[in-house]
Amino acid sequence: MTELHNLTEDHAARRRAAKVMPNGVYGHQSAISLLEGFPQFIQRTEGCRVWDLDGNEYVDFLCGYGIVLLGYHHPLVDAAIEHQMRLADCSNGPGLVMVELAELLVETVDHADWAIFAKNGTDATTTCVTIARSGTGRRKVLVAEGAYHGSAPWCTPRMNGVVDEDRAHLIKFRYNDTASFHAAVEAAGTDMAAVIVSPFRHDARHDQELVDPDFARAVRRACDDKDAALILDDVRCGFRIAHGGSWEPIGVKPDLSAWSKAIANGQPLAAVLGNERFREGATKIFVTGSFWFSAVPMAAAIATIHALRDEGALQKIIAAGDRLRTGLAAQASSYGLTINQTGPSQMPLLTFAGDVDLMRADLWARTTAMNGAYLHPWHNWFMMAAHTADDVDRALLATDAGFAAVRDKFGAD
Ligand SMILES: *Cc1c(COP(=O)(O)O)cnc(C)c1O
Question: What does pTM read for this prediction?
């Protein structure tokens, strides 16, 4: 273990970036919010490991912020990519893989009768909202406070550059709070087009909260009563919770669902899945993009979906997450620190008791990074099938150093 790793090359690259890009690296991958200790740039990836520009190696628990599910450079996905790349990628029309992937998704995902493909999660959530409005002829969209649905003006978390009119028809409710949800339905009146909701509450800077099945059923019932669309934003959780969609285990079917992140194990792809009720609404809109028909990511998605099942990936991911959690709980307790671990094992998050300003979380995550495991102080982490018990145990050496640093600086609870 390296006590304090060297980030000389990384810092030089950041200085170059700042000259030619606003803020240097922007958006969720800007390392500014992660403070010292985290690299900004990644040079190489393999399995569950990533390497920065200075050659430091990390066991990765961010999975490219959720885009990797099997592991980096999964051999069958890489083979599908190379095969399709030699045939065709972007051209005057899509490849047959587009139909094959739509068939596979309709067969795999519970509520789906059709699919539309795009590039990013924001494309998918925005298209769902457009289809809901097209299909209902109504305007109001109910959204949970603090939920992330992408970076377009209607949903970005920052209001700079956004005008009130972009948000004019959004009505807020609190996740898992049926009374506040019913008040929002009431406020929408006869103009309710849709509810958009994530499979569980995974807002940044908060403990995660699993969905209350009664809440999900209340949302389904209200959408049925109002003939509005229930949109499930499965961009982050898709294929992590269940093969058939993240609300399959609780038996609540959305009308429309938005997918991206891991569906092609790291290749750029998004999907909107919908049922018969919204097929007509979907036929009437115009959405497209120069690269939306790219065949390589579609071939990667087909290989990913098959590998997930064939390799029992979900069980491996859950087992790795459980092992990590058990180890973290034992370490925290041995240092006399009170922690809270929330969310499903596949998407863990750890917070420290009373850590309102997140100073403990920052120090912990930073020290952990400097000791060879890459996880996040306040955004949920992701497990992948490539995490073996040995990888988790290696990472636990790093988290132990993190807990020691927190205890030394802030004392035991
Ligand atoms: C990441 C994310 C999005 C946006 O996806 P992009 O690919 O970044 O546009 C939307 N919803 C959820 C829940 C997400 O996690």
Answer: 0.97
